[in-house]
Amino acid sequence: MKAKFIFIVVMLIxxxxxxxxxxxxxxxxxxxxxxxxxxxxxxxxxSFLVKQKFxxxxxxxxxxxxxxxxxxxxxxxxxxxxxxxxxxxxxxxLSYYFAPVFVMILAPFLLKERWTWLKGLSIxxxxxxxxxxxxxxxxxxxxxxxxxxxxxxGLLAAALYASVILINKFIKxxxxxxxxxxxxxxxxxxxxxxxxxTQELNYSGLGLQSITLLLIVGIVxxxxxxxxxxxxxxxxxGQTIAVLSYIDPISAVLMAAIILSESMNFxxxxxxxxxxxxxxxxxxxxxxxxxx
Length: 292
Known about the structure:
Layout: H1 2-15, H2 17-21, H3 28-47, H4 60-86, H5 89-96, H6 99-110, H7 117-133, H8 147-168, H9 176-198, H10 208-233, H11 238-244, H12 247-259, H13 266-283, H14 286-291
């Protein structure tokens, strides 16, 4: 029960990140850079306090995979944060949750997994849901949005996150904790020259609010969240993790509605249910359910 509670808290933390990012007065690439840097340094420090050992030693093959996946993770954040700027948190979150769908599409080709009619149905349901969510005429209640552009950024972020998931399948003899730290460090290393070239790097006028929120995103949403996430992963069943993971997108939509007064019309809500439902259907072990 304690492990479930911790996992639920982690999902709620992940679900709230959009509320913080929207109020940081920095570019998406700068937020991503600081998130990776602060988060990785926090986890390296935490590794000395918990029973998780961190080491830079790994194979050359893993280093190449970590470099590629770390870069994908960094730019995945940039696209996600850009999505928050162009559309509502609800739309950004639902389009970002297309990542499992991309994994389902690519897994048979890259991981030699079998196609099933259930996965085909899930993919079709997800695309139908996306068509319903993409509704430029919806009144978000605040600000001026360009929903198609925001959703496009969300889908790009989802595609990059799906690539991280798939690349991780090929990383061998490295713990999830070590993999995450090295990917965060790699993301920071790759993003630094990108930010250096594209941004002015003048933080003299950065307000206390933005600094505080940036620290929260780096320490809480990245450091603490990943630390607790991996601490309870092995204590929970895969099916439990799959079901509880839906707290992340659902809480993001609810918090955006309650705190930011963002709204979704009925058609978009149905679309969101289709997107989330598609991955839920694909993850359920129907044979096991029938036996019970």
